[in-house]
UniProtKB/TrEMBL annotation, chain A:
Taxon lineage: Bacteria, Bacillati, Bacillota, Bacilli, Bacillales
Organism: Lysinibacillus boronitolerans JCM 21713 = 10a = NBRC 103108
Annotated stretches, region: Disordered: 482-506
Residue ranges crossing the lipid bilayer per the database entry: 297-317, 368-387, 393-412, 424-448
Highest taxon in the source lineage: Bacteria
Localization in the cell: Cell membrane; Membrane
Protein name from the UniProt record: Spore gernimation protein
Basic residues: compositionally biased ranges: 496-506
UniProtKB/TrEMBL annotation, chain B:
Domain of life: Bacteria
Native source organism of the sequence: Lysinibacillus boronitolerans JCM 21713 = 10a = NBRC 103108
Keyword rRNA-binding attributed: no
Family: Belongs to the amino acid-polyamine-organocation (APC) superfamily. Spore germination protein (SGP) (TC 2.A.3.9) family.
Broad class of where this protein is predominantly found: membrane
Name listed for the protein in its UniProt record: Spore gernimation protein
Gene3D superfamilies reported for this sequence: Amino acid/polyamine transporter I (1.20.1740.10)
Record membrane topology: Multi-pass membrane protein
TM regions (residue ranges): 12-34, 46-67, 87-108, 117-140, 146-167, 188-212, 224-244, 249-267, 273-293, 305-324, 336-358
Swiss-Prot/TrEMBL keywords: Germination, Membrane, Transmembrane, Transmembrane helix, Transport
Subcellular location: Membrane
InterPro entries, A to Z: Spore_GerAB
From TrEMBL, chain C:
Ranges for domain Spore germination GerAC-like C-terminal: 197-371
Protein keywords: Germination, Lipoprotein, Membrane, Palmitate, Signal
UniProt protein name: Spore gernimation protein
Domain Spore germination protein N-terminal intervals: 24-188
InterPro entries: GerAC_N, Spore_GerAC-like, Spore_GerAC-like_C, Spore_GerAC_C_sf
Any Pfam family hit: Spore_GerAC
Family matches, as NCBIfam families: spore_ger_x_C
Membrane topology: Lipid-anchor
Coarse class of the protein's main subcellular location: membrane
Similarity comment: Belongs to the GerABKC lipoprotein family.
Cellular localisation: Membrane
């Protein structure tokens, strides 16, 4: 019953480039060199070729390089001063990152990444001065994972900015950063970050292996990468966390997890991740433990409520009218009296409407977004009841479960909650409580079967680790949570030396 | 001696999980209605029968562990082949597989009967058995870890049912328990014998033993698991005897479920309807373990793959569930199975221990003899 | 291979759709809230059911249908033929039995409800004075839903401990136990009201006698422990110690609230048999008329004594009455069985013993406090 992955993770490294091509050398004559660059890049409009007399040629792509640096530090230094050798030029420029290359392919690749090519007439070697500037927005608050107490900064789309953010949180030489390029066409940079001395080597190796084994031609977002390197891509449950909060990322890394940053994506990947950790928010660490525990229990209750409340209603009203207490009986049956549909259809219809509202709200521009609230709340809600399509009580139940599904701190998990409700409603509509239990058992077994980077998904419940429950659905005071989660199999098991909760007064 | 089963450390499970394995494999359909069967024999002393049966499980398990320890890391199938030789041993193994099959089936069929009696009288047996089997197949294909996980969650998630026993206490009278030991010891023992169908399941230890990581630590979790089961059975029995009058208990088929009929909360009434469905998660480990135990035997006999075996096994169970339809058939099956199970679970391990000891002494002497020669 | 899997999945889902179950959608069924049984003509059962229906046109409607058939299920089928909705019994709350029928044998009516998994064990049972059909079909001026009303009435009185608790479970418990007989409240129509008028005593499955509603307090106090219950008693002239009176009167009415009571039953002599019945009542005196001096410790003690005497007398009377009709609703037999080893008690044997049983009633009454104004 092992599911095959839908795409090839392991494919032999393709022989897509003839060795001949990669060995083409840089021409020594200027016009030949210019011609060869134009050919290699298909002569784009933003390719700027600037001749600096007497013998220099500068080639770069507009908008990729920092114009100010180019003018002040390169052109100004080179102009009207005869330079004979490459070394002289290199010394003349006040640029830190300069490379030599005599291969055409390497030269072009470097240029596409934001280098200025400096060619000296008669030399079959070029200087690559990297003065790249990447368009990126300023740092802003994490909008999808907002929290009241805690840092108000989120990742943005620039890999280097993101890494610098993390380096600011973890000022330690132990922070390892491995770079990969994924995508034969996009050449997306990926950073694998972990703490040396904490993260488990085997997990880092597995993740490294999975990334290098990928053979795809494009990678535009980390969510895609997360799905491709998941343990079971076919499961609806995400096995890796996507977060845009650097503090959460750093906290995970310090717990011994492995993080991945993708250039051009504002979401970072964290693995391994257990099921319960999807219901934890970074804010929990910033709050007092009683409040944090309450919030975590609230979220877990919300999960169950959201998944099982509507099916329970459907099952009770369709089959098990016996379980309805007498106080509910009359209002329930009277509110249902006008509805022409069976409860299952009624519930599915309303769920569908709620999902429509959510989807429309997510797609519409923010300015019009408010209208959706009015349309959804007033028009559909009130009118549907008055028209006799749904019952009042179901409306409340559906709204409640929709609300509950949004309490999950992970948007991915919230989506899962909303999705798995539908099959359960259908099962409940056909076989009542039996159907619900069937779904419950199925989901339970499914969750038990999952792993995240080889670690059990249901940790710390199964395998049961009593000590770790202190920081799972509850959060005990910080002195009691000195151990790192065994989920990550950390090399260093303790975060700090466990101390008594109440230090003795001196 | 046959060589011990070679297992990679990834398949191994910690010893403390045996607590959940043993308890999860024991509690199942039997607890729904065991009271009246025992009450017929032992009257108000039925709780003593439960206690005796509980003690018997401890003794039998003690023998089982002793036998298994002789062989280090081998399961019952391997031990049987070693003791009785290839042919008779394999015959015994086959019989044990059939035993597991019947046990698995009887759990399934009894549960289906409960669903049909309480919830959906018109639903087809085939439908219920097919859906349950699919869940079990899904759990089985996940491997032993997943099955143990199911058993673990089944216990943790059903713990909340225990406090529900406090509700009927309001209507209980302690007088029903007196006079203690009025019935003769024979009938009490007979009652304990009737517990067989309810209390079995711990024989899974025989099969799961080689998969345990730290084998010297198994005693505590195993006996604790047995103790918990015994305590739960005892509690249910005591509540039932005091809650029902004798005549009514004898006439109530699923006394435990009827106990819940009284329970009502502000948001839900008729708690037994929920309990009946919730019982699915309680019987899951039962069936999974029997299925798994049968599979362990089958791989020795025929070298069959897990997926193939589970589909075949489920298919046969499905066919059987179509054959056995009426309540009387089910009751007959339960009685016969209970009788057989008594010998398989309670008598056989006690006999096996001395045989294994003798055999060991014999072979070790022989080895010594050979060495000397 | 893949195609095969897809077809398998499609077939499987079709297969499951076929396994659909009959639905009982809440607003598409008629919910029986109360059933009354009567003796019909020629060994038939006459059933009167109060059925609650919800229709789009009017919010909800209560129908009372009387049918006659051989079995109770037959009656259900017959009632079904007269209604637009399927009749279900899962929300039944009360079962009423006609007096005439109760005097014969109620076993069938117990078993038919116990057997049905839809019927809860916590429904109330009661005997109707006269026949149930006219009792239920009468158009009460202020009662919309007679089924709901009777349920609430009984529940309220049981909660307040005014009436003995007679749920299906308890009745079946008593019916199937050897040393205890069952008792049920009696209900009757009093012009435009429904009222609980007494307690019906059963011997085996037959109703043999009844006690007035006032005596249900004594029945309760002997049957089980009592928590909160208001009771009023009258002390006659010869019970009253003259000292406590401020002015002469021929009777004192006392209302008290039994905060807690417990009973202790001990078998003194197994042969005869003879029981000691010790009852402890701790209560709060609510009202005394005419007034007596409650501030005085002595007069309170005297009052306690007087009440003790009165209560023991009443209890002795109630027990004597039940002995006379051979209905052991107090469970003396259970006690006897639980103490006497190898008694091999049968119902007949016990009823014989019960007739000549001797009970020494011993009441201890403590006034804990009175109100906030002396």
């Amino acid at each position: 019953m092992k599911f095959k992955l839908p795409f090839n993770k392991k494919q032999p490294q393709p022989i897509n480039e003839a060795p001949k091509e990669s060995l083409v050398r840089v021409a020594s004559a200027s016009d030949h060199f210019i011609q060869s660059i134009q050919n290699a890049t298909n002569n784009p409009a933003d390719l700027i070729i600037k001749l600096v007399p007497p013998n220099l040629t500068l080639i770069y792509i507009d908008n990729l390089v920092d114009i100010e640096t180019l003018n002040n530090d390169i052109i100004a230094n080179l102009q009207n001063k005869p330079h004979e050798t490459l070394e002289e030029i290199e010394i003349a420029m006040s640029i830190p990152e300069i490379q030599h290359s005599n291969l055409l392919k390497e030269t072009v690749e470097s240029m596409v990444n934001g280098s200025v090519l400096i060619h000296v007439e008669g030399y079959s070697q070029v200087l690559l001065a990297n003065i790249a500037t990447r368009e990126s927005r300023a740092l802003s608050a994490p909008e999808n994972e907002s929290q009241v107490i805690g840092t108000q900064v989120g990742f943005n789309e620039s890999l280097s900015t993101n890494i610098s953010l993390i380096r600011r949180y973890i000022v330690s030489p132990e922070l390892c950063n491995e770079k990969f390029k994924i995508g034969t066409r996009t050449n997306t940079s990926i950073s694998l970050l972990y703490m040396n001395g904490i993260a488990n080597d085997q997990m880092v190796n597995t993740l490294r292996q999975r990334i290098t084994d990928l053979y795809i031609d494009e990678l535009l977002d980390s969510a895609v990468l997360a799905e491709m390197i998941d343990d079971n891509s076919l499961s609806v449950f995400p096995q890796m966390l996507l977060t845009e909060r650097p503090d959460r990322f750093c906290d995970a890394i310090l717990d011994g997890k492995v993080g991945i940053l993708v250039d051009g994506s504002s979401m970072a990947i964290i693995a391994p991740q257990s099921f319960t950790e999807f219901f934890q928010s970074q804010e929990d660490q910033n709050l007092r433990w009683q409040i944090a525990t309450f919030l975590r229990l609230l979220r877990l209750t919300a999960f169950f409520l959201s998944v099982y409340l509507t099916p329970f209603y459907v099952a009770a009203v369709t089959f098990h009218y016996e379980v309805i207490p007498q106080a509910f009986l009359v209002p329930l049956s009277e509110s249902r009296a006008l509805v022409p549909f069976p409860p299952i259809f009624e519930a599915l219809l309303l769920e569908f409407i709620i999902e429509l509202l959510r989807e429309a709200g997510a797609r519409l521009p923010t300015k019009i977004g408010q209208t959706i609230g009015i349309v959804g709340g007033i028009v559909i809600g009130t009118a549907a009841v008055q028209a006799g399509i749904t019952s009042n009580i179901l409306l409340i139940i559906i709204a409640l479960s929709a609300l509950a599904s949004f309490t999950s701190p992970s948007y991915m998990m919230g989506n899962v909650i909303r999705l798995i409700r539908f099959p359960i409603i259908i099962l409940a509509g056909f076989w009542g409580f039996y159907g619900i239990m069937l779904a419950f058992c199925f989901i339970l077994i499914h969750l038990l079967r999952q792993t995240s980077l080889g670690a059990p998904y249901m940790s710390p419940f199964y395998p049961p680790r009593m000590k770790e429950m202190r920081d799972s659905i509850v959060r005990m005071p910080i002195p009691l949570t000195a151990k790192r989660p065994a989920l990550t199999r950390p090399k260093d098991k303790n975060k700090f030396k466990p101390q008594p909760v109440k230090p003795k007064k001196s | 001696m046959t060589k011990p089963i070679q297992l990679s450390p990834k398949d191994m499970i910690s010893a403390y999980l045996l607590f959940f394995i043993i308890h999860g494999a024991q509690v199942g359909v039997g607890i729904q209605g065991f009271q009246r069967i025992i009450y017929i024999d032992a009257r108000q002393d039925a709780w003593i029968s439960v206690l005796i049966a509980g003690i018997a499980t401890h003794i039998v398990t003690f023998c089982m562990i002793k036998t298994l320890e002789i062989y280090g890391s081998n399961d019952l199938y391997g031990i049987q082949i070693d003791i009785f030789g290839k042919w008779i041993g394999n015959l015994f193994n086959l019989m044990y597989i059939v035993y597991c099959f019947v046990a698995c089936f009887s759990v399934l069929r009894n549960y289906i009967e409960v669903i049909q009696a309480w919830l959906f009288p018109s639903i087809g047996t085939w439908f219920l058995s097919a859906t349950l089997l699919i869940i079990i197949i899904y759990a089985f294909t996940g491997g032993l870890r997943v099955i143990v996980g199911v058993s673990f969650f089944s216990i943790i998630l059903s713990l909340w049912i225990l406090p529900m026993l406090a509700f009927p206490l309001k209507y209980s009278t302690a007088e029903s328990l007196f006079p203690i030991l009025e019935n003769d010891f024979r009938s009490i023992l007979k009652g304990a014998h009737s517990m067989t169908f309810t209390i079995i399941g711990f024989e899974i230890l025989n099969i799961v033993y080689p998969f345990i990581k730290d084998k010297e630590k198994i005693r505590k979790p195993v006996h604790l698991g047995l103790l918990l089961s015994t305590l739960i059975y005892l509690a249910v029995m005591l509540v039932s005897i005091t809650y029902y009058s004798g005549g009514k208990l004898v006439k109530t088929i699923w006394a435990t479920l009827t106990l819940f009929s009284f329970i009502s909360f502000p948001f839900v009434e008729r708690f037994e309807f929920i309990a009946v469905c919730f019982w699915m998660i309680i019987i899951l480990p039962n069936m999974c373990f029997y299925l798994w135990a049968a599979y362990r035997g089958a791989t020795r006999l025929w070298n069959i793959s897990g997926v193939k075996f589970v589909w075949l096994f489920s298919f046969f169970i499905f066919i059987c569930s179509l054959v056995i339809q009426t309540r009387t058939q089910i009751n007959t099956m339960n009685t016969i199975f209970g009788k057989v199970a008594f010998y398989v679970v309670f008598v056989y391990p006690i006999l096996l221990w001395p045989i294994a000891l003798l055999k060991k002494n014999f072979t070790s002497k022989k080895v010594k003899h050979n060495e000397q020669a | 291979m893949n195609k095969l899997k897809v077809t398998l999945v499609v077939l499987l889902s079709l297969f499951f759709l076929y396994g659909c179950v009959q639905t009982n959608i809440l607003d598409k069924v008629g919910l029986t809230t109360l059933v009354g049984y009567d003796k019909g003509s020629e060994h038939k059962i006459e059933t009167t059911a109060v059925i609650r229906e919800v229709n789009p046109e009017f919010q909800s409607k209560v129908e009372v249908i009387t049918t006659e058939n051989d079995t109770s299920k037959g009656n259900r089928m017959e009632a079904n033929r007269r209604l637009s909705k399927k009749i279900m019994v899962g929300q039944m709350r009360v079962v009423l039995l006609g007096e005439e029928l109760a005097k014969e044998d109620i076993r069938y009516y117990l078993d038919t409800n116990l057997e049905n998994a839809d019927v809860s064990n916590s429904i109330y049972m009661a005997v109707v004075e006269g026949r149930t059909a006219p009792f239920l079909t009468y158009e009460y001026k202020d009662i919309d839903d007679i089924g709901q009303h009777i349920y609430k009435l009984i529940e309220q009185n049981v909660r307040q401990e005014f009436m003995i608790n007679a749920t299906l479970h308890q009745i079946a418990h008593d019916y199937y136990s050897i040393g205890k007989d069952l008792a049920m409240p009696i209900i009757k129509r009093d012009q435009e009201f429904v009222e609980l008028s007494g307690v019906a005593l059963f011997k085996g499955g037959k109703m043999v006698s009844k006690l007035p509603a006032k005596d249900s307090f004594y029945v309760k106090i002997v049957r089980d422990t009592f928590k909160v219950g208001l009771y009023e008693t009258i002390l006659d002239n010869d019970d009253i110690p003259s000292k406590i009176l401020q002015k002469p009167t021929d009777k004192i009415t006392i209302a008290f609230d039994a905060i807690h009571s417990n009973r202790e039953l001990t078998l003194v002599d197994a042969k005869k048999p003879e029981f000691d019945l010790d009852i402890n009542i701790r209560s709060r005196v609510l009202e005394v008329f005419p007034d007596i001096n409650q501030g005085d410790r002595k007069s309170v003690a005297e009052l306690e004594k007087a009440i003790e005497k009165k209560i023991s007398k009443e209890i002795a009377r109630v027990i004597a009455h039940s002995q006379e009709v051979e209905s052991d609703i107090f469970g003396f037999g259970e006690k006897y069985r639980s103490i006497v080893r190898h008694s091999n008690l049968t119902r007949e044997k016990w009823h014989k013993l019960y007739k000549d049983m001797k009970v020494n009633v011993n009441v201890k009454f403590v006034i804990l406090r009175d109100g906030v104004f002396e």
